[in-house]
Amino acid sequence: MKKYTVLLLFVSLFFLEACSSLEKEKIIQKWPNGQIRYKIIYQSPEDTTSYSFIQYYENGEIYSKGAYLKDQKNGTIKSWYKGGKLCSEEIFTSDELKSFTYLYEDGSLKSKGVVAFYDTVLQYDSVSKSRFYVIGDRGNYKSWYQGGRLESEMCIIDSNTALFVEWDSLGVLIRRDTLRGTGNPVEMAGVKKNKR
Question: How many domains does the chain have?
Fold first, then answer.
């Protein structure tokens, strides 16, 4: 019985060591207080183009985590508010955003969308509210006011046509348009491009 226990312990330690040597953690940046700010974990020591990453707040809480495959965002990238509540979830394939969900700190939906072909991400500020539009050849997007009332909705039919509806915070219709023209529904809507 002792032989099997010792053998099992030895085999377990061997596999644990073998698995840990396959992954290599690299600290990229630290906060002034010494806490890790950004680190990457290579899945294989031979491949430095495929890795997962974790970003931290200065207090050590996780800010965001995700993965890259061949130096392109791939899979789910999540971010959190301080305190650990989910802030966003974006899904990428080969660096192209496929879908996204942004939440208010109370956990209610802020915006959500699906993109068939990624083109650009931009920000539009309206009465101190921020909305993120993801525009592509096809897809849809919705945003909500903090109380849960629908704020806007866009359905992109093709690169020249989009349906756009917007409501005020009381639910009164502000705008309903079929946008046509320039090949960019954002320009058709008259929305200014800003960096996110």
Answer: 2
